[in-house]
Amino acid sequence: MRWMIDHYYGDEPMTRLDKALFSFASYNAGPARIARLRTETSKRGFNPDIWFGNVEYLAAEKIGSETVTYVSNIYKYYIAYRLIVDEMARKQKATTQSNSAATPAGEQAVPATP
């Protein structure tokens, strides 16, 4: 995937997220097809450098829902993963702060069990 991002989208004026999304779409539908969709998206007045709400619509129209669903599912699972990781970090920080505040000076805190 890194190769696809660098090779096809490395110099494109896209966010890192869109470079990844376009790479997933290219993996699923082919890079040449996605390039054609980007060109057509631009001709229709949409932004060819943004997947969601732009190239995504033309992909659904021209090649069907498979690629759109594929990219959307990957993004959905990524968001779920990020939320879990962020929540775990928040809990760890709260536990560490709680242990630090509850420990008298000179004593060591006992690590919290998961």
Binned, the helix content reads: over 70%
Main sheet attributes: strand count, strand direction, barrel closure: none
Count the helices. How many? Answer: 5
Q: Could you tell me the mean pLDDT?
A: 91
Unreliable stretches (pLDDT < 50, length at least 5) are none
What is the SS-derived class?
mainly alpha
* Assembly state: single chain
β-strand number: 0
Overall spatial form: elongated
Write down the domain tally.
1
Percent of sequence in beta strands: under 5%
Rg over CA atoms, rounded to whole Å, is: 22 Å
Which key phrases capture this entry?
single chain; about 110 residues; mainly alpha; about 75% helix; Membrane-bound lytic transglycosylase F; Lysozyme-like_dom_sf
Topology readout:
Layout: H1 2-9, H2 16-29, H3 31-43, H4 51-63, H5 65-102
Helix pairs in contact: 1-2, 2-3, 2-5, 3-4, 4-5
Would you write up a description of this structure?
With 114 residues, the chain is an all-alpha fold. It has one domain. The protein is built from five helices and no strands. Helix 1 crosses helix 2. The longest helix is centred in the last third of the chain and has 38 residues, at 65-102.
